[in-house]
# Entry
Amino acid sequence: MLEIIDIYKRFGERVAACGLSLSLAQGEVVALLGPSGCGKSTLLKLIAGLERPDAGVLRFDGADLSGVTPDARGFALMFQDFALFPHLDVLGNVMFGLRERRVPRAEARARANDMLDALGLDGYQARRVWTLSGGEAQRVALARALVTRPRLLLLDEPFSSLDAHLRQGLQQDFRRLLGERGVPALLVTHDRAEAFAMADRVALLCDGRIQQCATPGGLLAAPANAWVARFIGYENLLVDAVVPERAFRFGPDQPLARVEDCVPQAEGMRVRVSTPEGRFVLSLSAREAAACAGQLRAGGEIGVGIDRGALLRFGGE
# Structure
């Protein structure tokens, strides 16, 4: 459906996209995950037609988008600041895109009401947008984006300004509605938990390049490199692999590791150790901590080994 092929984009000395390629299938949700400034939002604008690539090809349903204006692409772009129209009530905001497309008023009203109902906003039609809570305003923005039945939905950190409880509820509604309507979506986020919860696949960006694109499970099972592993939350790395918790072995029969610091946890101890293979952070259970309690202090020594067969090799090797 959407094909991004070898895209390049530079702003002065800053490279926003460097040979970037990605595809998106019908009904698929792909998250663009990465740190600030890595090129996520720029890619969204390139797809929407708000920016032009320096080189490369963008296609949708096999058609080249290079000569297609933003309004003719049939995509919906949703930002984190909601961008609701303050002079319109909730119903007017949701109907706006339909009326711009010359959908008859009665049909536009019916479709807008159905979408508000689907998002739990029935009865909000006459509310002024400045009276809405953050979560309500974001639901209105989502309703406005989906009611036009876009060919592709582009979301630029749409939930980042909401608290955790509201964010989780909106994520669930978002996934449900997209699944029901078969709308493909590209979601920009810097939040790993959000990307993993909402996306079928996650593309990790760094300095304008995609480091890896895979399912959340695929990323966790086989990160492509050390940068990917650290970004998705792994702390303990070797040159060629992640050391998951299950790979550590403890006891007097293991090589001695120097304890650098200890932090008590609800059900055990978080311990930082130095070994010949590197520094590692260990989460010891209460039983494991009790077994070596006398040495769980800065300067103490505990036996720590690594089961090489349990390592997660970069790239799945």
